[in-house]
Amino acid sequence: MAPRKEVFEGVEWRIRVAADGSSEALVPATGLARKAWLGIKGLISGFALKVRMFVKKAWDVGTNDPRKVIHCIKVGLALAIVSLFYFMRPLYDGVGGNAMWAVMTVVVVFEPTVGATLSKCFNRVLGTFLAGFLAVGVHWVASQSGERVEPFVVGASVFLLASAATFSRLIPSVKSRFDYGALIFILTFSFVAVSGYRVDKLFELAHHRISTIIIGSSLCILVIMLVCPIWSGQELHSLIVRNMDKLADSLDGCVTQYFNQSGEGTNSKEEATDNKLQGYKCVLSSKASEESMANFGRWEPSHGQFNFRHPWKQYLKIGASMRSCAYCIEALNSCIKSENQAAKLIKQHLGSGCLKVSSSSSNVIRELAETVKTMKKKSSTTDLLAEEMKSAVQGLQNDLKKIPHLLNPSAIPGNKTLETACSEATTPTVTLMELVPVVTLASILIEISGRIEALFDAVEELAKLADFGINDDKSKHSKMTDKTVSDAKQQTEGTMKALQRV
Fold first, then answer.
1. What is the pLDDT of residues 276-288, one digit of tens each?
2. Is 419 helix (H, G, I), strand (E, B) or coil?
3. I need a labelling partner for 440 at 20 to 30 A (CA). Which of 107, 117, 191, 382 fits?
4. How does residue 459 score in pLDDT terms, banded at 50, 70 and 90?
């Protein structure tokens, strides 16, 4: 039989039939040129897809935080202005042909926030000035020592001063504020001192370098402060407020999820609860950001409600108090995911008290967040919520004390409530492993309330040091707080109904 050919979309397929009637597999017959074209086409389409994905991600970054786009524009503006010193002949001659140092200064010191830029500018100018002054002095001493001794004097001075400056960078107090200045000192001193051995006009070289750096730093300060400024102190203030809200949401979500596992929740509600549970992780991971913002905030001038001597260090104490609470919430989350299931009787007995403690504790944290956000001194509502939290903790402690009598009702025959609960439970036998999870959760909640009191004191100290204003809108503030308490009570009642069904 003659071989048959079928053509489909430009590809030729051949079927070879053997003498015994069997046939071979279909094999496309394509040329080398077509294979190369398909390979190139695949590469081009893959590259185009990656470019499109990159553009989409860049667009999302810009739309999610427009300040990043503004920062890029400010950097371009500063570089365009400082480039005039290189393009214009009068300005170029005025700085002795070293205008490129001004361009380099703008590139390395321009930061997104005002405080970070001021810190780098100050460190760069101070480090350059001290290094240039010392380098000129060392050069004069070396030149007076004779031609043979001069290189040894320069080398020894570079060794000693570079070693001392490097050691200073290891000191925590110096590293936090002057690390960049020490680095610039080492670079400038080594450059000027070593160049002085071959360059005759060393003083002129140092003068031009310092002048161009001052020009670049001054231009950076003007642009960062006049064009849509972003203040480090304000960023720290907002970060603390957001972390407080996340901490309160995590505490509420964690306890509610533990006592409301009836399976009635929808997927969307479960996802929302999981997002709230993850909020405490932001508090745990924000220590480095808080310290950096507090350090840069001390460099910033007075702006808005923040004075030059604003107590930024107190925000670090508030952050530390929040992290101590977040560690307890992490332990609560571990209780939720524990494989050991708590006894239903004990869970029902402690459920109301635990929910009240978590609700009142969350309300206190939210009230403290509102105090920091508005920069107003605490109102009478804050004290009432704190007392409510203490009362809820006392009630939970009493419930914990009743657990032995609940497990052995005959010990207190006159208590109808406990006898009724035990009769309904048909006097169950509760093992130690069933008792530990919920008792551990209750103990952690009591510990959280104690740590919230430390957070309360830290916020009160901030209000005193920063001279917060008097809260003159108590009625409106009280209504908002009453609404928050009402919503929390409704949530607690709904969870208790779920517990009763369990």
1. 677 888 899 999 9
2. helix
3. 382
4. very high
- pLDDT > 90 fraction of the chain, expressed in percent and rounded: 26
**Spatial separation of the C-alpha atoms in residues 487 and 34, rounded to whole Å:** 69
Q: Which residue has the tokens 């309330």?
A: 449
Q: How far apart are CA 149 and CA 155, in angstroms?
A: 10
The mean per-residue pLDDT over the stretch 306-330 comes to 91
Domain with CATH 1.20.58.220 in the chain: 232-260+273-406+431-483
Average pLDDT over residues 120-136: 89
224 closest CA partner among 121, 376, 125, 342: 121
CA 496 vs. chain centroid, Å, equals 36
Write the CATH number of the domain with boundaries 232-260+273-406+431-483.
1.20.58.220
Q: Which residue has the higher pLDDT, 97 or 47?
A: 47
The 3 state secondary structure assigned to 229-294 is: CCCHHHHHHHHHHHHHHHHHHHHHHHHHHHHCCCCCCCHHHHHHHHHHHCHHHHHHCCHHHHHHHH
Digit-coded pLDDT (tens) for 89-115: 565 565 555 667 788 889 999 999 999
Q: CA angle at residue 69 from 66 to 73, to 5 degrees?
A: 140
CA 440 to chain centre: 30
In terms of C-beta density within 10 A (0-12 exposed, 13-18 middle, 19 or more buried), how is residue 185 classed? Answer: buried
Sign of CA dihedral 402, 403, 407, 411: negative
Sheet harboring 4-8: ordered strands across?
A: 4-8, 11-15, 27-29
**In contact, 182 and 166? CB cutoff 8 Å:** yes
DSSP code for 349: H
**pLDDT at residue 340 tops 80:** no
Q: How far is 363 from 428, CA to CA, in rounded Å?
A: 36
